[in-house]
């Protein structure tokens, strides 16, 4: 098993009730998981706990059998390196070139001095260019990232995650600020990566139809609890009502 989440709880310091309550599930290699739920249900909190951008209050997260719930230092760096992350707001550095943004994905593999001096190895540059080719953006590699459209910026973010050579890719509402056509093109790229590179996907989505179309498994979250865990075909009207009630 790739990832095992056991009885996970997260309570933010100033809130009265926990954002996540007793969440348990496992993720196998190759799955494409969509997380559905109302705004405030706890989807982002779950993704952030898995990537350890925040530390859970209780419970355990195991990665390839190893407990990483409170990992720090080198262990945390190594763990994070195997996880690519894409965000709703793309999180690129606008004034830097597209290629340089993609190269950021290689930082976990190089000594700090190289990163500081922007001295990337030829093999890193080749890997970044190849990733840009795969998302169809090789031709804009020298442009400033802030000159691209939202959909293009998300593709750059995917290329950045790809050069990290991740095992799992997490997406926190990666298509929420894009129009329907662009959203589909981004989901197509994620599906291609999932199928060809065998990178496991876990993405928060607002759109049930996208989840049905692309996911192999859906986790429905309501008020910090999993209320549905199954294939998209089993998402009946009643189940959706349960998730979104
Ligand atoms: N940093 C924080 N400090 C305190 N409470 C927080 C923090 N982040 C989230 N919360 C609360 O935790 C709960 C779950 O929020 P979360 O962002 O995980 O939900 P979500 O399902 O991702 O919603 P959305 O789709 O709106 O982002 C909400 O009640 C939210 O207000």
From TrEMBL:
CDD domains: ABC_PhnC_transporter. Pfam families: ABC_tran (PF00005). Residues 3-245 form the ABC transporter domain. It comes from the Bacteria. Keywords: ATP-binding, Cell membrane, Membrane, Nucleotide-binding, Phosphonate transport, Translocase, Transport. Signal peptide: none annotated. One of its GO terms (molecular function) is ATP hydrolysis activity. The keyword Phosphoprotein does not apply. One of its GO terms (cellular component) is membrane. InterPro entries: AAA+_ATPase (IPR003593), ABC_transporter-like_ATP-bd (IPR003439), ABC_transporter-like_CS (IPR017871), ABC_transpr_PhnC (IPR012693), MetN_ABC_transporter-like (IPR050086), P-loop_NTPase (IPR027417). This is Phosphonate ABC transporter ATP-binding protein. It comes from Ammoniphilus oxalaticus. The lineage of its organism: Bacteria, Bacillati, Bacillota, Bacilli, Bacillales.
């Amino acid at each position: 098993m790739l990832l095992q989440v056991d009885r996970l709880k997260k309570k933010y310091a100033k809130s009265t009730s926990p954002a996540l309550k007793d969440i348990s599930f496992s993720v196998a290699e190759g799955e494409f998981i969509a997380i559905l739920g109302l705004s405030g249900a706890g989807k982002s909190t779950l993704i952030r706990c898995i990537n350890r951008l925040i530390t859970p209050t209780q419970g355990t997260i195991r990665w390839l059998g190893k407990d990483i719930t409170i990992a720090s230092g080198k262990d945390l760096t190594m763990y994070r390196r195997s996880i690519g992350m894409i965000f709703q707001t793309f999180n690129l550095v606008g004034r830097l070139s597209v290629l340089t943004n993609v190269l950021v994905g290689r930082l976990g593999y190089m000594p700090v001095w190289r990163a500081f001096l922007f001295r990337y190895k030829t093999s890193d540059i080749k890997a970044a260019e190849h990733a840009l080719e795969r998302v169809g953006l090789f031709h804009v590699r020298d442009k400033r990232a802030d000159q691209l459209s939202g959909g293009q910026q998300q593709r750059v973010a995917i290329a950045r995650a790809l050069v990290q050579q991740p095992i799992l890719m997490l997406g926190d509402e990666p298509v929420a600020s894009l129009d329907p056509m662009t959203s589909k093109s981004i989901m197509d790229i994620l599906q291609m990566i999932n199928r060809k590179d065998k990178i496991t996907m876990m993405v928060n989505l607002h759109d049930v139809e996208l989840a049905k179309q692309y996911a192999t498994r859906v986790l429905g979250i309501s008020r910090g609890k999993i209320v549905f865990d199954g294939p998209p075909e089993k998402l009946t009207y009643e189940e959706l009502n349960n998730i979104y009630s």
